[in-house]
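stage 2 :: seqdesign
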């Protein structure tokens, strides 16, 4: 079909087909490699079953656990069959109650998700980054690109709570801080979604913080307000105002669709000002650094004492167990 001279006449449709074909080929290659790894493990088991050398036995164990992890990942992917699960994702962190500690906590979460994305080979870009008053950040938005990015991270939406001895309190008091994490899929086919431009207020300003290397040179950063709902989005990572506006519109559409789905409205025009964005709702996870160390997911009742490992981006145990629990 791709060899047909007319195939590329419709660029949009042909691009979708090529993307789908690549996705299917990747899945076939993945299964083929899995089968070869299985055969290798079977052969290895035959070789070492009468073997007393601990080094060979440990090598087999390492290969087995790698194989098991691949199976586990494939199993998770088969569960991710929601409408937007394969899409890229916009992850936004907002500092909540707790003052400068909450802003520092938000920066810790920002680093945690960046580390997770890097470890899982996703493409990352900082869309917006608002520096805190004394430390940390007030808010930040990361675009995470790759297959199933939204599916993996959608369970991270909610309130994240930190308990620790405050590094900003001279008396060394224990402080509880909160931050919210918002997860939105990047919506494809934006041209099919209509928003009344009279309901939008678009402002430009000078970029600052991460992603704003050309600070104070041009008003390239863009802020868009949806007047009916009061939803505000902003983008400052691109060098051109046009690119920032396009990215901000993508986030705005994602927010409006998510709000529409929650409110069961049939059209975006039906959204009104009494439908506010999700605020600080139910707490999904606690991170305790004092008087003991613990990270506990309150929805799945899963916990670990290795808080440093979690804050360095190792959050798969929470992500995968949430997906299994939901599906």
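stage 2 :: out
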């Amino acid at each position: 079909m791709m060899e047909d001279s007319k195939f590329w006449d419709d660029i949009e449709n042909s691009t979708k087909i090529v993307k789908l074909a690549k996705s299917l080929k990747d899945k076939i290659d993945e299964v083929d490699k899995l089968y070869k790894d299985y055969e290798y493990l079977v052969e290895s088991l035959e070789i070492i079953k009468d073997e007393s050398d601990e080094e060979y036995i440990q090598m087999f164990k390492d290969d087995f656990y790698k194989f098991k992890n691949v199976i586990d990942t494939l199993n998770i992917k088969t569960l991710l069959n929601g409408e937007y699960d394969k899409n890229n994702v916009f992850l936004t962190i907002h500092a909540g109650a707790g003052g400068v500690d909450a802003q520092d906590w938000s920066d810790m979460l920002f680093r945690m998700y960046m580390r997770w994305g890097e470890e899982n080979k996703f493409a990352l870009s900082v869309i917006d980054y608002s520096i805190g008053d004394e430390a940390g950040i007030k808010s930040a938005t990361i675009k995470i690109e790759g297959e199933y990015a939204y599916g993996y991270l959608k369970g991270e939406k909610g309130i994240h709570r930190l308990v620790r001895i405050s590094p900003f309190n001279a008396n060394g008091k224990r402080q509880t801080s909160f931050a919210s994490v918002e997860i939105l899929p990047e919506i494809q086919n934006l041209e099919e979604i209509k928003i009344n431009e009279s309901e939008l207020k678009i402002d430009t300003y000078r970029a600052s913080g991460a992603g704003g290397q050309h600070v104070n040179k041009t008003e390239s950063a863009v802020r868009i307000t949806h007047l009916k709902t009061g939803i505000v989005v902003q983008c400052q990572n691109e060098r051109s105002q046009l690119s920032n506006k396009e990215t901000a519109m993508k986030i705005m559409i994602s927010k409006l669709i998510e709000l529409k789905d929650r409110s069961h409205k049939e059209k975006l025009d039906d959204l009104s000002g009494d439908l506010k964005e999700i605020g600080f709702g139910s707490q999904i996870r606690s991170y305790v650094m004092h008087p003991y160390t613990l990270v506990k997911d309150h929805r799945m009742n899963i916990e670990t004492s290795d808080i440093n490992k979690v804050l360095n981006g190792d959050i798969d145990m929470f992500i995968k167990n949430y997906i299994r629990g939901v599906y």
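stage 3 :: structure notes
- The two ends are 36 Å apart (CA to CA).
- The chain has three domains: 7-79, 89-188+281-326, 193-270.
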